[in-house]
Automatic annotation (TrEMBL), chains A, B:
Gene3D superfamilies: GntR ligand-binding domain-like, Winged helix-like DNA-binding domain superfamily/Winged helix DNA-binding domain
PROSITE patterns according to UniProt: HTH_GNTR (PS50949)
Protein name per Swiss-Prot or TrEMBL: GntR family transcriptional regulator
InterPro entries: GntR_C, TF_FadR/GntR_C, Tscrpt_reg_HTH_GntR, WH-like_DNA-bd_sf, WH_DNA-bd_sf
Sorted UniProt keywords: DNA-binding, Transcription, Transcription regulation
Segments forming domain HTH gntR-type: 17-84
Amino acid sequence: MDTVNTVKAATGPIRRETLHHGAVAELRAMILAGELRPGSRVAEVQLCGQLGVSRTPLREALRVLAAEGLVELRPRRGAVVTPIDPVEIGAVFEVMEALEALAGGLACRRGTAEEFAELDRLHAQLHARFEAGDRPSYFATNRLIHARIVAMARNPSLEASYAGFTAKILRARSLANYDAERWRGSLDEHEGFMAALRRRDAAAAGSLLADHSRRTADAVLQALNGGSE
Amino acid sequence: MDTVNTVKAATGPIRRETLHHGAVAELRAMILAGELRPGSRVAEVQLCGQLGVSRTPLREALRVLAAEGLVELRPRRGAVVTPIDPVEIGAVFEVMEALEALAGGLACRRGTAEEFAELDRLHAQLHARFEAGDRPSYFATNRLIHARIVAMARNPSLEASYAGFTAKILRARSLANYDAERWRGSLDEHEGFMAALRRRDAAAAGSLLADHSRRTADAVLQALNGGSE
DNA sequence: GCATGCCAAAATGTATACAAAATGGTGATT
DNA sequence: AATCACCATTTTGTATACATTTTGGCATGC
């Protein structure tokens, strides 16, 4: 019985999870982990057994995930995990670029000293993990840094949108490992926007974060289109 | 290629709507129209009778609307129409500003000549409705213009996000009628970004649309906070 | 008079039953 | 041999039944 809340903290009144809420979290995790592969059909009864719930909460969960865009519901013909469409991913990145820029600028104006210090600490960790050549850890820290910047923007709507887009992109990234050169470039760009953030230069931070996002997009899309074999 | 559109389009192929899909559309319309007032409790069985469906599809619809942020689900304690929180609306507008800027820039680069011509036509209509002093018609055309610009950006992700934010803002706007001076200013700003769009000036169009969005936000928030009595 | 505890009614969460449509395979016809 | 039609199976969509939990009121006690 784990509390798999993506957003809400553990505080507040006794929070009794409902089954469909838990099912949403589990299914989302399964999709993001690639356990349910893009394009694959979602068999309701099979998942019911797997998750230990009946069809009702499972179906409610599927509607939520469909609203998030992670699954597609075809009337009377079942659900499929949304296939990864490079065109769609490109569109998502395009919006991400704008959101990163917004987040960077707002973070400069609204982040606390503690948050900036934490950002520095995470950036050092990113560096260390690059040196160690540990890709998965690097990406984990990378994601955390961006999430923190978004959190520093103090805008729940931005945060929610960002999380949704991140989920979509994450699935694409998992099957598009870009090369070592791009990895180096990514780190350099982090250096760049970190410098801007340190001096609270909102315009520069936003602009550099947007650049970083665009270059990441280019790399991911290139890997998606060309580097399958 | 089925189109699961938020707007009920003309019947394409055999379009077999499911009940919960229809319920989502109806409930969303009711919420946006203010028929279900913000903060009010949503009684399941009552709505079941009203919509002519049983609890199952209605509940599925409520999950979807909760994912969209239009209702809030409190475990074991029913659903409420999400109250209008000026702070949240402010946050939404902040993101909208970035999306408008993005849409304006992309529209300049990707819109077709026909679309720009249509935009001109709608802008003239906007003018006429301002002169006629017909507020509701003005706002309808206004929304249409912005929707068209977003469509010209050729980015379904942007379009979907934009639609979601628009829905939230619309509810706030419906109870915040701003004054005549702002109305005039709004029209002037439309003139401004239309000029930029006509000459395909992406940077200017984006910037002016962002300005327009920010000023609209200011007016709405001011009306929300101060102008209740 | 006010607070507390308990019970009844209502509402939510979940499971299951039923109806209708889609899927897949078999057999008949050309 | 290929195609079409038809039927059984499976699967989805919906309704309803059941189990908990919340809620409101009433009685009891202080």
